[in-house]
Design brief:
Layout (H helix, E strand, L loop, with lengths): L24 E3 L6 E3 L10 H12 L7 H18 L4 H13 L1 H4 L5 H4 L1 E8 L13 E7 L4 E8 L2 E12 L4 E13 L2 E6 L5 E9 L2 E6 L4 E7 L6 H5 L1
Antiparallel strand pairs: 1-2, 3-4, 3-11, 4-5, 5-6, 6-7, 7-8, 7-9, 9-10, 10-11
Amino acid sequence: MNIGQISSLRSRPLPHPRISSHICCNLDQSPRRLVSKNPVSPLRVTPPEEKGLTSFLAVSPREASGTATLARAEELCRNAVKNRDSPTDFVIGALVALECDAEKVGAAADLENLDGSWRLVFSSSAPIPQWRYIPVRENFIINVKTSRIALRSQLGFIGTDFQGSFSWDAGQHALDFGFDHLLLSVFSFKKLFKLRVPNKVYTWFYTRDGVACTRSSEGGLAMLRLDTRGHPTREDMEK
């Protein structure tokens, strides 16, 4: 299947978004082609991902093997996390390439590897391309010991702290989580609200050297870096 034919997949039935490890392909010996590993569960691809993958493969040497292309994808993602200056279309393409051949890369997450705080760096589902590199301080915090989770954001004097619990599917490398409380902070004012929101699932297809990549059950791709502070408090986030 040629890259130019990827868009035809969007008209096919899609698998459940939670089973993203089944939404796979292989970068074969020619980096210009994608081969479906599971014809029952075809590659799910959105227009931005199609554009990004095409852009990323276009700058890969034509003689490069699939392994070399994956190594280039890893290098590009690490640079994006560190410097936040890689073209966003290329980053999306590199993420799709890593997700497609997650088994070959061999860096899918175990729960123990996710323990700690992860600074959100990049999201393919940002409302505008300029915000794909996330412009606010936002940490996704996973506490394996307590099975609790938090999403803490800070924008000026306003802070939000979504709190909840999670379960882990080791076979799918999937984190199923939901938030049950929101702590809102404005200057010294703090108020805790109860929440009832649908669960989300993050499928972690890459975790290596403090960089993690995940697919949300809502469809977006995200990239995070490990925050060396471990489980930062709200006060840490405000610094």
